[in-house]
């Protein structure tokens, strides 16, 4: 399978399109889309432009180029404000990331039992201008209805990010809080504490020590 074909297939599935639906949107037929995805044929430039628009990916991503040479795939730590019956708290959990060009697929573990207001979740983010991720999350546990949006500022070296979330929670229909992601747990937790202390008014990245 070609890199371009793999990106087309993955983005089509993320967006919930069948091959026939995607073909109609880009002005092709189902057999052509199938051949693109298997690598039997490659899209011409005009097809790539339409695919980029419909699948919401850059031409670089369709060509298999990663963002700024940074590799975000692997295991990270997420730390963020959470709200429950006892009020505000900081939850820290393991976060697995799979990268597809400018896109990140997220899989967050529970920080605590569901009965205490925690849940496993999945999500997706896209990198913009090599400096910020924007995306969404949704609960992956049973009947938990929590969902919302994510925004992260990316550290220039790519080893951490900080930002916030806004979404639905069982405590209220619209809730927001600070959050951070880093390779090390203590870094993610320190970033969240700094965000909460300054209400997000951080003009520089802090010098962190364990």
From TrEMBL:
* Superkingdom field: Bacteria
Q: Which residues form the HTH cro/C1-type domain?
A: 8-62
UniProt key word Metal-binding: no
Keywords carried by this UniProt record:
DNA-binding
Q: Name one GO molecular function term.
A: DNA binding
Question: One matching Pfam family, short form?
Answer: HTH_3
Query: Does the keyword field hold DNA-binding?
Result: yes
- Which Gene3D superfamilies has this protein been placed in? lambda repressor-like DNA-binding domains (1.10.260.40)
Q: What is this protein called?
A: Transcriptional repressor DicA
What the entry lists under PANTHER family is as follows:
HTH-TYPE TRANSCRIPTIONAL REGULATOR XRE, TRACRIPTIONAL REGULATORY PROTEIN-RELATED-RELATED
């Amino acid at each position: 399978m070609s890199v371009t074909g793999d990106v087309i297939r993955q983005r089509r599935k993320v967006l919930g399109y069948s091959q026939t639906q995607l073909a109609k949107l880009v002005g092709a037929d189902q057999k052509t889309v199938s051949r693109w995805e298997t690598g039997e044929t490659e899209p011409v430039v005009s097809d790539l432009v339409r695919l980029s628009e419909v699948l919401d990916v850059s031409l670089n991503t369709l060509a298999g180029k990663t963002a700024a040479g940074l590799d975000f795939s692997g295991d990270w730590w997420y730390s963020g404000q959470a709200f429950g019956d006892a009020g505000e708290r900081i939850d820290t959990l393991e976060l697995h990331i799979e990268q597809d060009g400018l896109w990140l697929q997220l899989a967050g573990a529970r920080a605590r039992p569901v009965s205490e207001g925690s849940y496993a979740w999945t999500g997706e983010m896209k990198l913009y201008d090599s400096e910020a991720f924007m995306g969404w999350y949704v609960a992956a546990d049973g009947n938990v209805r929590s969902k919302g949006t994510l925004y992260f500022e990316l550290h220039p070296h790519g080893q951490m990010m900080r930002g916030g979330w806004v979404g639905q929670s069982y405590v209220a229909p619209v809730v927001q809080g600070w959050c951070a992601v880093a390779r090390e747990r203590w870094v993610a937790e320190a970033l969240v504490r700094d965000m909460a202390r300054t209400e997000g008014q951080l003009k520089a990245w802090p010098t962190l020590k364990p």
